[in-house]
Write a structure and sequence with these properties.
The chain is of the alpha+beta class. The protein is built from eight helices and four strands. Strands 2-1-3-4 form a four-stranded mixed sheet. Helix 3 (84-113) packs antiparallel against helix 4. The radius of gyration is 17 Å and the shape is globular. It starts with a strand and ends in a 6-residue tail after the last helix.
């Protein structure tokens, strides 16, 4: 398998963490999707990373799809319950974490890719409201639990950890640590895992 990605993308990091937790071998190919000569469209028509290229050359994209697939490849560190409500609850956590990321990434791109005179403060405010609401629900649902789903580590924790890590990386002015100490405790615990230590986002 070959993973096409970047060192800064939180979605790529999610897949890299899953690959590490599952102890799966893969080749890692760095790609800048913003570069004029990017070749990502040869594998993903949406022009996004991560993209997992299978042994037969067929591509798989979207971090949620890739993570779910990887969890089926080996029984090591099962990250998703087999079925039913428990599985759905983990996927809801992942959707929430990814939704916070989606909104924050849009704001980051607005501020870094568009001239100041073309930026919409109203639109930025709308996206940041989603980030704030998502963090509040994460904190509320986590409560005093050890992990997102109680006492066991799942894909929910991978997704939340990658979201919090990217916010700390790109939006250091968002004081989620001060506002939500339980999220900070979870993040610090996750950051001790080799899978997280080895995938800290970089510029």
């Amino acid at each position: 398998m070959k993973l096409i990605g970047s060192l800064a993308s939180p979605y790529v990091r999610k897949v890299r963490v899953v690959l590490a937790e599952k102890k799966l071998d893969y080749a890692y190919e760095l790609e800048n999707v913003w570069a004029p000569d990017t070749k990502i469209n040869e594998f993903n028509p949406l022009g996004k990373v991560p993209c997992l290229v299978m042994e037969d050359g067929s591509p798989m994209y979207d971090s949620r799809v890739i993570a779910e697939y990887l969890d089926t490849l080996t029984p090591v560190c099962k990250l998703l319950p087999p079925n039913g409500r428990d599985r759905a609850n983990v996927k809801v956590w992942e959707a929430l974490a990814d939704g916070v990321l989606d909104a924050a990434v849009l704001v980051y791109l607005e501020k870094t890719r568009r001239p100041p005179e073309q930026q919409s403060e109203e639109w930025i405010g709308r996206q940041m409201a989603k980030v704030s609401a998502g963090l509040a629900v994460m904190s509320q649902d986590l409560g005093e639990s050890q992990f997102c789903r109680g006492t066991y580590y799942t894909l929910a924790d991978v997704a939340v950890g990658c979201t919090l890590g990217w916010l700390a990386f790109r939006f250091p002015d968002i004081d989620w640590r001060g506002d939500y100490p339980n999220l900070a405790r979870l993040f610090d615990k996750l950051s001790e895992r080799p899978s997280f230590r080895d995938t800290v986002p970089q510029k």
